């Protein structure tokens, strides 16, 4: 007698991303805080959640737990076409950093040396004003990191 053929496999479990893994971790955190999981079991389940690649990898972690649970069967988010200046998490286009933001740290580090060289080499009265370049450069660099405000 021959054995019956195995049933055809169903559709593969959808792959998950960082958002789904984070939701599973948050649910495990809630169960730890509620006392449903001890620290060792929490560690094991959170490690498995961090390594999960598909929704089927996450489901066994919550079979014996009540809500909260991450949404396992939710439809995946629509793919956002990759364009320069966008990220997977934030599809809003971002501007490239300006020259001051890119070179600001190096310039700010060199400003005390530049001010000292100017103070010692430029023969003008009140040469101490060159040292005002240091806080001015720091202010410019800080305002460029805040978005120019």
Automatic annotation (TrEMBL):
<dbReference type="Pfam" id="PF08044">
    <property type="entry name" value="DUF1707"/>
</dbReference>
<keyword id="KW-0812">Transmembrane</keyword>
<feature type="region of interest" description="Disordered">
    <location>
        <begin position="37"/>
        <end position="92"/>
    </location>
</feature>
<protein>
    <recommendedName>
        <fullName>DUF1707 domain-containing protein</fullName>
    </recommendedName>
</protein>
<dbReference type="InterPro" id="IPR012551">
    <property type="entry name" value="DUF1707_SHOCT-like"/>
</dbReference>
<feature type="transmembrane region" description="Helical">
    <location>
        <begin position="127"/>
        <end position="144"/>
    </location>
</feature>
<keyword id="KW-0472">Membrane</keyword>
<keyword id="KW-1133">Transmembrane helix</keyword>
<feature type="compositionally biased region" description="Basic and acidic residues">
    <location>
        <begin position="37"/>
        <end position="56"/>
    </location>
</feature>
<feature type="compositionally biased region" description="Pro residues">
    <location>
        <begin position="68"/>
        <end position="81"/>
    </location>
</feature>
<feature type="domain" description="DUF1707">
    <location>
        <begin position="15"/>
        <end position="66"/>
    </location>
</feature>
């Amino acid at each position: 007698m021959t054995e019956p053929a195995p049933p055809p496999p169903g559709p593969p479990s959808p792959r998950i991303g960082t958002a789904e893994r984070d939701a599973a971790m948050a649910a495990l955190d809630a169960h730890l805080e509620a006392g449903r999981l001890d620290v060792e079991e929490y560690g094991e389940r959170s490690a498995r959640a961090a390594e999960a690649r598909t929704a089927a990898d996450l489901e066994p972690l919550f079979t014996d737990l009540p809500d909260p649970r991450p949404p396992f069967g939710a439809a995946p988010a629509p793919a956002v076409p990759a364009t320069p200046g966008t990220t997977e998490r934030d599809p809003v286009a971002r501007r490239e950093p300006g020259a001051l933001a890119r070179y600001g740290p190096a310039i700010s580090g060199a400003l005390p040396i530049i001010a000292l060289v100017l103070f010692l080499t430029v023969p003008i009265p009140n040469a101490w004003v060159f040292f005002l370049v240091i806080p001015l450069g720091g202010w410019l660099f800080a305002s460029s990191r805040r978005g120019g405000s």
